[in-house]
Design a protein that fits this description.
The chain has about 425 residues and is mainly α. It has 21 helices and no strands. Helix 2 packs parallel to helix 6 and helix 5 runs parallel beside helix 8. The chain starts with a helix and ends with a helix.
Length: about 425
């Protein structure tokens, strides 16, 4: 009769600290979003090097299109790596995820230009982004499951670090962009300077791989070995389709806002005719707001509930996104651009922080990584990966400089719909 307590004690004695859990879970997520931000921020230079065309607008659309197409494989990665996490454990899936991300980053670092190898260059960049997209597909669900299962009483705070790490990554990318565009000439940036941020991201991968290999499985998975023999994909599709749809809706507004913020440097130079460094400075300010607000919102949501914070944030985006863009177009300046991006980041942080815990609660432990990964990555594909290209397309087809706000408003409606459905389900459950 004494054996079970002994096993419980042994497991508890090896439980890592909250800091180690959060670091292990977030390092791959941080690398993923760092690469996304860097690609978006330096899209203009990537278009000149790898997607050469007589029309610069076409080159940029091809660059942003490649960025968007790579998100189509994310649901595949979600199914493969998410189900692997539910069967073999969170740690195993997270180790594979960060390793594959590093391979994709390395390809971008070493890829010769279009002038050197012709059409192989854009194809190589597409392959690199597809590898990264596949790896990122299983990252969010597995990492968030790891944190909330180790810290069940602080789910909001724990899961919020997924998004805080994204903010830190965006901040670092914006800082590098500000420094590089302020110190290097356009010719230097085009010839070699744009590769520097990717090389810096590559250096993070070995550290993250080491940390993840040395973190144990959470108690939920070690205490329920029957989950490892289940078929999480089939179970999810049979029993949790509505949960996946709700997850997609939850992602809409915050993902759309995030990728719109990463598009700001391109928007600032191409549409507002501001200097190259302006957009990076604004993105840097937005990153600081996200870094400050996200975990505070997550912590607060453990007290008042996630939905109580997320509905006002999404509503504010719906009401204010067009007026903010209209004001920016009417009087473009560095100060106003910083102000608009900071306000968007504030709403995003308040929405973002509680979201991971709310999503984790939609699915049971045996399908949590799969369900979150699939819903998250379909949502990111629809409302994230193609947002820069949709923004550029709206600008081109409508001729209205505030047109990107229409897409954000639509995303806000989708998120509010999911939130009200979840609130109604919660009330009925009581």
């Amino acid at each position: 009769m004494s054996a079970p307590p002994a096993r419980t004690t042994a497991r508890a004695s090896t439980t890592p600290s909250p800091g180690k859990i959060i670091t292990a879970a977030c390092v791959g997520n941080a690398l993923e979003w760092y690469d996304i931000a860097v690609y978006s921020y330096f899209a203009t230079y990537l278009s000149k090097v790898f997607f050469t065309n007589d029309d610069p607008a076409v080159s940029l659309l091809l660059t942003l299109g490649t960025f968007g197409v790579s998100f189509l494989i994310r649901p595949v990665g979600a199914l493969v790596l998410g189900s692997y996490a539910d069967r073999a454990g969170r740690k195993a899936a997270l180790t594979w995820s960060i390793g594959l991300m590093a391979v994709g980053t390395l390809l971008i670092c070493v890829m010769p230009s279009y002038a050197a190898i012709g059409v192989v260059a854009p194809i190589g960049i597409l392959v690199a982004r597809l590898i990264q997209g596949f790896a990122a597909g299983g990252e969010f669900g597995s990492a968030t499951a790891l944190m909330v299962e180790f810290m069940p009483n602080r789910r909001g705070f724990a899961a919020s670090w997924q998004f805080t790490s994204q903010a830190a990554s965006t901040l670092l990318a914006a800082l590098l962009g500000t420094v590089l565009t302020s110190t290097l000439s356009e010719d230097q940036l085009t010839s070699w300077g744009f590769r520097i941020p990717f090389l810096i991201g590559l250096l993070v991968a070995p550290v993250g791989l080491y940390i993840r290999r040395n973190v144990p499985e959470p108690p939920t998975t070690t205490a329920a070995p029957e989950a490892a023999t289940a078929q999480p994909v089939r179970t999810m599709l049979r029993e949790h389709k509505t949960g996946v749809l709700l997850t997609i809706g939850l992602l809409a507004v915050t993902t759309c806002l995030n990728y719109l913020i990463t598009y700001i440097p391109t928007y600032a130079t191409k549409t507002l005719d501001l200097p190259d460094s302006t957009g990076f400075i604004a993105a840097l300010a937005g990153g600081l707001v996200l870094l400050t607000v996200t975990s505070v919102a997550g912590h607060f949501s453990d007290r008042v509930g996630q939905i109580a914070i997320m509905i006002p944030a999404a509503g504010a985006v719906l009401l204010l996104i067009y007026p903010m863009f209209a004001l920016l177009v009417a009087a473009p300046s560095l100060a106003l651009l910083i102000g608009v991006v900071m306000v968007m980041a504030l709403f995003k942080g308040c929405y973002y922080g509680p979201m991971g815990a709310l999503m984790a609660g939609i699915f049971p432990a045996e399908t949590r990584a799969t369900g979150m990964a699939v819903g998250y990555n379909i949502g990111v594909t629809i409302f994230g990966g193609f947002t820069p290209m949709i923004a550029a397309w709206l600008l081109d087809t409508t001729g209205q400089s505030a047109a990107p706000s229409y897409w954000v408003a639509f995303a806000a409606v989708a998120s509010l719909t999911s939130l009200f459905v979840l609130r109604r389900r919660t009330l009925h459950a009581r």
